[in-house]
Amino acid sequence: MQMDRGLDTGDILLQESVEIGKKETAEHLYERLAAMGGPLVLKALDAIEDGTITRTKQDDAKSCYAKMLTKRQGEISWTMPAVRIERLVRGLNSWPSAYTFYRGKMLKIWDADAEPQKEMEAAPGTILGTTKDAIRVQTGDGVLVLKEVQPEGKKRMAVKDFLLGYPAEGILGQRKEG
């Protein structure tokens, strides 16, 4: 992008498109884009030097300001649809991370899958049950299946390991036990 007075408002000099994988996290996408960036900059510099670069004006109507991420944005609202929560988990991985509260303590969610559901079985945030390697949680629309979590003060772990030390019952999202 050509620099000008505005914030990210200059002409586009060169661009490439990438597909985002179904389970790709922000951290993995960042790494892929960083690897693409160096060669793309060299290609743009060569095109500028030999006069073949094509400048493309940005369409201000299609742009928006992206605020800086804050830790608070990672708190999961269980009334949201499962698909949206799953995207929040991937989009905030590795920082600030998506989190909820379990038994009054923070529980980070590192990997989860969304499942459709015909009708709600319980209030959003209610743990519906477990398998040997997953915790199923009711959302506002669908079920979120937790696969990897991190209890407050502990390391990241697969849900199967979490279940060895923590009973999975109750409602997620409550800051205080009760």
Structural description of this entry:
- This protein has three helices and six strands.
- It has 178 residues and is of the alpha+beta class.
- Strands 1, 2, 3, 4, 5 and 6 form a six-stranded antiparallel β-sheet that branches.
Key descriptive features of the protein:
178 residues, elongated, alpha+beta, single chain
Helix content: 10-25%
Give, in order, the helices and strands. Answer: HHEEEEEEH
Strands, total number: 6
Oligomer: single chain
Mean pLDDT: 93
The largest sheet, given as strand count, sense and whether it forms a barrel, is: 6 strands, antiparallel
Which stretches are poorly predicted, pLDDT < 50 over at least 5 residues? none
CA-atom Rg in angstroms: 21 Å
Number of helices: 3
Classify the beta-strand content into a percent band: 15-25%
Shape: elongated
What is the SS-derived class? alpha+beta
Ends apart, CA distance between termini:
53 Å
Strand and helix map with partners:
Elements lengths: L25 H24 L32 H10 L6 E5 L2 E11 L11 E5 L2 E5 L4 E9 L5 E2 H7 L13
Quick recap:
By secondary structure, the protein is an alpha+beta fold. Helix content is 23%, strand content 21%.
